[in-house]
């Protein structure tokens, strides 16, 4: 095991990821940010220098942060925001392997560009040497307006409409916006080369696919090539015939690894990220999208191929906006959820106007609002426990060492929501239609999928279980960024008695002092 050092300078740059130039919030001037690579057992030391002109934090999506809850990057829950002009170093050990990503967790900042991939190798990964080579592919929606414009519209009093409409889909940071469309204006001038992946006929490749969207669900596919799913959110899964798909559904923040056999004639093939019709937001019920929005392409390039790709898309016959049928995929190691539950929570997800007539999302009738200057975990470390204050902040505590937590989430909204749990991966033991807690779908305690982000069906439910082996404060939220800002967030206070014995690093406390000073100065 080694310690790997990275420096992230957060700064704004003018970039044209899809041909349309805008200010992009970047890591080291790059969008997506640099790939972090490490081996299982390594430690990462990542110095974040914030030159954005606004506060920031970085979350390491899917990384458990055992004993380092204060480096999880959630403002209001695990740390104070890093003020502009300041730096903060995230230091944590990797006891997992697989495909992850990082993103800002401060307001909707990741939608403006602070995202990047994080891959952890493990020689004991069952698929470590089954492929000749591998690639990381990010797919994400992209907006020409900054979130400082989009968010106030989405959160306007009385607004009952849909989410902002993306302008493009990007594959590994490259998109093809139609510059001749009237909306393009004079900021649109470059034709962007699609993301291209070089392969050799006869070889096998692992593609690690990460959905970095604010909102969009995708069908991901490669013309004429099947995808064999071998990893789901960092967890290796069994390689069987049922795990081979033509089209891979992937929602916000989810990751999959697939094996692609390059056994087709030498040619160029389209790689596609498609937003199915029903998942495209349509303000005022008008259809408001163009081809670069609904069908983004990259290229799978066989070594000596020179001709243009011939379009041979698979048909998209899966239900839109739903996860891959969990029956097809089983955890590789066959690990089963505990049969006995020590703590159970029932979460009702609803929508209701707040005092300012903003339609906010609720979990058990309460909408999360972060207290940036006073994160929950530091309050618990100071006060030595879990007290009532958290109730107003959608906090739920449990204190049973190594207990099994069960969460039943009932989504009474019409649309689906990709829910993510920090600090853990969970067994998804049930998922289906209906919001009557007495009438849930049958629990699978034999071989359920394990992951960290799962799509809760509209007017439907999920049931998850995980082991309380990670004391700290862990966010549980929908990963549609607009829904986060509208409060669809809970915080799980895991084993406060044990957590309060941990020692918080001085620089974590010092960060809150600088943040509070920076806020005072502004007044
Ligand atoms: Cu990917 Cu709470 O985040
Ligand atoms: Cu949501």
TrEMBL record:
Pfam families referenced in this protein's UniProt entry, alphabetically: Cu-oxidase, Cu-oxidase_2, Cu-oxidase_3
Plastocyanin-like domain mapped to chain residues: 11-124, 134-304, 388-497
Signal as UniProt keyword: yes
InterPro entries per the UniProt record, alphabetical: Cu-oxidase-like_N, Cu-oxidase_2nd, Cu-oxidase_C, Cu-oxidase_fam, Cu_oxidase_Cu_BS, Cupredoxin
UniProt keywords, alphabetically: Copper, Metal-binding, Oxidoreductase, Signal
GO molecular function list: copper ion binding; oxidoreductase activity
KW Signal (keyword) present: yes
Database matches in SUPFAM superfamilies: Cupredoxins (SSF49503)
Entry similarity comment: Belongs to the multicopper oxidase family.
PANTHER family associated with the record: LACCASE (PTHR11709:SF511), MULTI-COPPER OXIDASE (PTHR11709)
Protein name per UniProt: 2339_t:CDS:1
Gene source species: Diversispora eburnea
Organism placement in taxonomy: Eukaryota, Fungi, Fungi incertae sedis, Mucoromycota, Glomeromycotina
